Amino acid sequence: MHTEQFGVAACGPQEQYFSGLAEGRFQIQRCEACGDHQFYPRVLCVHCGGTALQWVEPAGRGSVYSFSVVRRKPEAGGDYNVALVDLEEGVRMMSRIDGIALEQLHIGLPVMARLVHTDGAPLLVFVPAEAA
After folding, report:
1. pLDDT in tens, 27-58
2. Which residues of the chain have a pLDDT value below 70?
3. CB count, 10 Å around CB of 48?
4. Long-range contacts, 121-124 (Cβ 8 Å, 24+)
């Protein structure tokens, strides 16, 4: 539990987001004034400037908006993707798509959020919806 002063948590929104991931929760912010969701976490609503932001669990469903394949030598870990995913709640997140061959990755691919641990740290990635 975070202590609050003047309606703002003692730790910032980014720390709250990552603390939630560490506890196994994927959450984004929703403005109580206008009802819109936002991501990247902030102290003010990007849509209306409201300060009453609550943490909510999104459905986790989305689609690939765009992606890029980063090419690396196999001894450096091999190729991987960096993707922009649009969630049903109207926010766009940068992550990666797991569980699919790079040549099968495409814009519009339906995906689901999944929390994984990499090197002991929580990481939000996406997988094809049919694999979820």
Report:
1. 999 999 999 999 999 999 999 999 999 999 99
2. 1-10, 132
3. 12
4. 122/18, 122/21, 122/22, 122/24, 123/21, 124/21, 124/26, 124/93, 124/95
Rounded to an integer, what distance in angstroms lies between the CA atom of residue 45 and that of residue 81? 30
Q: Which two three-digit tokens encode residue 48?
A: 């209306």
Query: Looking at residue 97, what DSSP letter applies?
Result: B
Q: Is 77 helix (H, G, I), strand (E, B) or coil?
A: coil
Q: Strand runs (DSSP E) across 36-131, as ranges?
A: 37-38, 53-56, 61-70, 80-87, 92-95, 110-118, 121-128
- Torsion angle (degrees, nearest 10) of CA 52, 56, 61, 62: 20
Residue 80 CA to residue 61 CA, distance in Å, equals 22
